[in-house]
């Protein structure tokens, strides 16, 4: 399964396929812990993730064999722990670039790294780093993308096939290969020190940027406009003429 | 002691890394203290000896007195803190239902994960760079931490 030959330097050259597993991020962490045969660019992929994780305590559910659920191991030693949002920008844009080959418009990154088509979620990213001192050691990039799944238990989720109404199911291996190429390209851009160009692209593809919408802060509803991000990745929202920067749990979108 | 011998001794001390040397024999008391680059020599009340019958046995360097005092707290020099390498939210466990990575009184080894710091939905396992025993946990679970904020006190193994 997943015999692919992506046109990359190192990403996806080694693929570990597991028909079933609890969480590809957990398997990746075990591989890193064992410290043997870890390669930068290694991919762990499964058809059936039984305990997929989202952010702390949240679960990621996907129908068996319909979607892409995998983890990519990177070694961004060139980034300080405090610069890690750059990695998030590169990976989010990589996913977006790949999907834009199938979807022309309305594809956005919902801060900080969910993939949205209009008001529906199509994918999620879970990045877990190991830090040694002030540097990043390994980075595990977990990506879940809804590709062929037709129906969802929640109303705010969708898949590539639902959006494009493609008569045939997509070839998961082909999309994976394409996705890895796109992620590596953006990753190499930050590695070469060209973060600013990516940041501008991230902002122009940010869900609800420069639009007035409802948000929630400490349970309180307010109207504001996303104006950008700061150097740590905090989200800047302007409300009543004042700009406030928020950490991830400090503000909630009302969708 | 001949002036020549004293000169030799001073040369020896000057070339050493010692900052302070005190030599005391029955016939001589020599105290040398280095201030910055130039050594300041002080010879105190050396009784005049007309004819020294035997060479002084104390020509070897005095027991190496501790060099300049190390700038360190006097107490608990074997305790160090693990600091946060970034701004974020501090978590003591992998998930809401998981046990804490470390507990007070427990030994940790280099490379052991001690906590998670989350920022913008990116999760960071903080690995200990030292081995020792956790003495104190300085931050409450699920609270914000600043760059360089001390998280744990560890007594070195």
UniProtKB/TrEMBL annotation, chain A:
Enzyme class: ligase
A Gene Ontology term for the protein's cellular component: cytoplasm
UniProt xrefs under CDD domains: BPL
Enzyme Commission code(s) on record: 6.3.4.15
InterPro entries membership: aa-tRNA-synth_II/BPL/LPL (IPR045864), Biotin_CoA_COase_ligase (IPR004408), BPL_LPL_catalytic (IPR004143)
Domain spans labelled BPL/LPL catalytic: 3-191
GO molecular function: biotin--[biotin carboxyl-carrier protein] ligase activity
Domain of life, source organism: Bacteria
UniProt entry keywords in alphabetical sequence: Ligase
Ligase in keyword set: yes
Matches recorded under NCBIfam families: birA_ligase (TIGR00121)
Protein name as catalogued: BirA family biotin operon repressor/biotin-[acetyl-CoA-carboxylase] ligase
UniProt lineage: Bacteria, Pseudomonadati, Bacteroidota, Cytophagia, Cytophagales
UniProtKB/TrEMBL annotation, chain B:
Pfam families with a match to the protein in the record: Biotin_lipoyl (PF00364)
Superkingdom as given in the UniProt entry: Bacteria
GO cellular component: acetyl-CoA carboxylase complex
Biological process per Gene Ontology, one example term: fatty acid biosynthetic process
InterPro entries: AcCoA_biotinCC, Biotin_Carboxyl_Carrier/Decarb, Biotin_lipoyl, Single_hybrid_motif
Domain spans labelled Lipoyl-binding: 79-155
Protein's recorded name: Biotin carboxyl carrier protein of acetyl-CoA carboxylase
Source organism (scientific name): Arcicella rosea
């Amino acid at each position: 399964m997943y015999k692919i030959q992506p046109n990359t330097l190192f990403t996806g050259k080694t693929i570990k396929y597991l028909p079933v597993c609890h969480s590809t991020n957990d398997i990746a962490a075990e591989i890193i812990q064992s410290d043997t045969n870890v390669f930068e660019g290694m991919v762990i992929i499964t058809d059936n993730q039984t305990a997929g994780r989202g952010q702390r305590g949240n679960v990621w559910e996907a129908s068996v064999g319909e979607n892409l659920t995998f983890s990519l191991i990177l070694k961004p030693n060139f980034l300080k722990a405090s610069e890690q949002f750059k990695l998030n920008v590169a990976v989010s844009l990589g996913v977006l670039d790949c999907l834009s080959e199938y979807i022309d418009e309305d594809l956005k990154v919902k801060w900080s790294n969910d993939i949205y088509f209009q008001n529906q979620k199509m994918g999620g990213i879970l990045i877990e780093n190991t830090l040694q001192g002030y540097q990043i050691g390994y980075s595990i990039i977990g990506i879940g993308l809804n590709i062929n799944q037709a129906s969802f238990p929640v109303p705010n989720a969708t898949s590539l096939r639902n959006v494009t109404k493609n008569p045939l199911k997509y070839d998961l291996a082909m999309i994976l290969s394409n996705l890895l190429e796109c992620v590596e390209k953006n990753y190499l851009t930050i590695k070469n020190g060209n973060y600013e160009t990516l940041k501008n692209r991230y902002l122009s593809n940010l869900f609800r940027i420069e639009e007035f919408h409802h948000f929630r802060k400490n349970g309180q509803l307010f109207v504001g406009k996303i104006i950008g991000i700061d150097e740590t990745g905090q989200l800047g929202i302007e409300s009543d003429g004042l700009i406030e920067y928020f950490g991830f749990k400090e503000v909630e979108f009302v969708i | 002691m001949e002036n020549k011998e004293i000169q030799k001794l001073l040369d020896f001390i000057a070339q050493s890394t010692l900052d302070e040397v005190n030599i005391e024999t029955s016939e001589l008391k020599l105290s040398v203290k280095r201030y910055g680059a130039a050594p300041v020599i002080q010879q105190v009340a050396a009784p005049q000896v007309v004819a020294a019958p035997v060479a002084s046995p104390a020509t070897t360097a005095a027991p190496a007195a501790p060099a300049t005092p190390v700038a360190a707290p006097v107490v608990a020099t074997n305790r160090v803190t693990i600091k946060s390498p970034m701004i974020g939210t501090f978590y003591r466990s992998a998930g809401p239902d998981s046990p804490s990575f470390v507990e007070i009184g427990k030994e940790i080894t280099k490379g052991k994960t001690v906590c998670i710091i989350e920022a913008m939905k990116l999760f960071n396992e903080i690995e200990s760079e030292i081995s020792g025993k956790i003495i104190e946990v300085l931050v409450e679970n699920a609270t914000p931490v600043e760059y360089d904020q001390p998280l744990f006190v560890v007594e070195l193994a």
